[in-house]
Amino acid sequence: MTRGNQRDVDRARAQARAAKHKKASKDENKARAKTQIASAEIMRQKGLLAAKKKQEEMKKKEIEEEKKKYIKFVRRMLSEFYRREAPEKLENLPKIMEKFEGKWDKLMKGLEKAYGEKAPNLTWEQFQVKKNKLNL
Asked: What is the sign, positive or negative, of the torsion defined by CA atoms of 117, 108, 63, 94?
């Protein structure tokens, strides 16, 4: 091999090595940075959606717990009322609760019609006032 050929071979090897270990250009770095920023924004959005979904689930759970407590409140108020006013109807309390499930305003109207001012107040507002006192 002659010296001229050797230079060409060495030059080709050096160019191959440089291409292999080539530093990224400024444009490539900018594009990579934009991609990373976009990916980070997507992940941030996903995190926010997950947090919002979890918060909504917690609200639904709290609402369900409040409804259960309200039903306990209604049962307790009715049992106290029937003990005082109509003990014979106390044994029908489960049937009454089942019949008027979710229609507490109709039950209240019927009790007010039958018993007047002695009828218990089963409104949601009354529940909010008394729920801490009754330890529901």
From this structure: positive
Reference 69, options 3, 130, 4, 7; nearest CA is 130
d(CA 21, CA 9): 18
Q: How far from chain centre, in Å, is Cα 18?
A: 55
- Threshold 0.70, pTM exceeds: no
Within a 10 A sphere around the Cβ of 104, how many other Cβ atoms? 19
- Please give the pLDDT value at position 24: 65
HEC string for the chain = CCHHHHHHHHHHHHHHHHHHCCCCCHHHHHHHHHHHHHHHHHHHHHHHHHHHHHHHHHHHHHHHHHHHHHHHHHHHHHHHHHHHHCHHHHHHHHHHHHHCCCCHHHHHHHHHHHHHHHCCCCCHHHHHHHCCCCCC
Is residue 6 over pLDDT 90? Answer: no
- Whether the Cβ atoms of residue 119 and residue 111 lie closer than 8 Å to each other: yes
Both structure tokens of 14 = 């050096």
